[in-house]
Amino acid sequence: EENGAECIYQISENDAQKQVGQIENMVEQGVDILICHSNEKEAVSGALQAASEAGVLVCYYENANGEAYCDVSGGNDAFDIGALITKTLADGGISGKVAYLYGDPAGGTGVYDFHDGMLKSLENNDLEVVGEQWVENWDPAKAMSYAENWISIYGKDLKAIFCMNDGMATGVAKAIDQAGLTGKIKICGQDAELVAIQRVIAGTQESTVLKSGVAYPRELTQLVIDYRVGEATAADFGSTIDNSDGEIVPFLNYPGTIITKDNVDIVIDEGVYTKDEVYNTVAE
Fold it and tell me: Judging by DSSP bridges, how do beta strands 57-61 and 248-253 pair with one another?
C-alpha cells in the first residue's frame, strides 16, 4: 500500500498442485511481482519459471537452495536455523537418551539442512539416540504418537526430544504431559508459534527460534519492489543463491534468533505478538 501497489495473496494449504494453479492464475491476471513460498519447491518450480519467462519478477521466499526457480530469493540459512534449534539444549549440556523428530523430507534440501544443523550443534554432547523419525506433513498428531511410543519404552530416562518445529513440539508436549513427565523431558523447536512462546515462559519448552518477525518480510518486499522498478540492484541483496536452473540469483539473508525464557519479550518488541497475547491469552 505504501508503494501504491495492489497486493493479491492466496494460500495453498500445503497443496503444491493447487499452488501451481494459483501461480498460473496470477500470471494470467498480469501481476508484475510474484513472491512465493511452497512446501514442495520442485513441484512448483516449473510454474515459477513460466511466470518469470512471462515477464513476472519471481521471488522465492526462503532459501531456494537450487530447488525452486526464481529471479531473486530471500530468507534464512536452513543449516544455521537447524543449529539454533538445538543450541540451547546443547549449550546446557544435555546428555543421555534422546530422540529426534524431523520434518517432512518432501520439503527438500532445506529440511535436510535443518537436520544437519541440529546434529552439528549437538556433536559434542554425550547422547544416546534412541529414536529418529521423519514426520509426514510435519504433523503434530504423528509427532505425538512417536513421542508416546518412546516415552512408553524409556519413561523418565528419556532426557530430550529434539523437534524440528514448534508444531511437532506441541504434539510432543501433550504426550509428555499425559505421561506426567512435564519438565522431565526437554523439548525445543522453531517458528516462535504463540503456544510455543507460552511453553517457553512456563518452562515446558526450552527454546524456539524466531526466523523473521515482521521486519524481515517488509524489508524483503520493499527490496523486491525497488528492484523491479530499478531503484535497487542485485548488490543490494547482499548475497547470492542458486536457483533450480543453476543460475546465480540475488539473495537477502536474515539470521534467526533463539527465544528462551530470558529474552522472550523479543517477540513483543519485534511486533510478532502483543504483550497481552503472550502473557494473557491462552493459545490453542
Answer: unpaired
Distance in angstroms (rounded) separating the CA atoms of residues 105 and 172? 19
Using alpha carbons, select from 185, 192, 177 the residue that is nearest to residue 85: 192
Give φ, ψ of 163 to 5 degrees.
Answer: -100, 135
What DSSP letter does each residue of 233-274 carry, written as one string?
Answer: -GGGG-EEEE-TTS-EEEEEE---EEE-TTTTTHHHHTTSS-
pTM of the prediction?
Answer: 0.82
Dmax (CA) for the chain in angstroms is: 61
**Tens of pLDDT, residues 211-258:** 988 888 999 999 999 999 999 999 999 999 999 999 999 999 999 999
What's the pLDDT tens digit per position in 173-197?
999 999 999 999 999 999 999 999 9
Grid coordinates standing for 105? 523430507
Nearest residue to 150 via CA among 125, 166, 171: 171
Scored b (16 or more CB within 10 A) or e, 222-250 reads ebbbebbeeebeeeebeeebbbbeeeebb
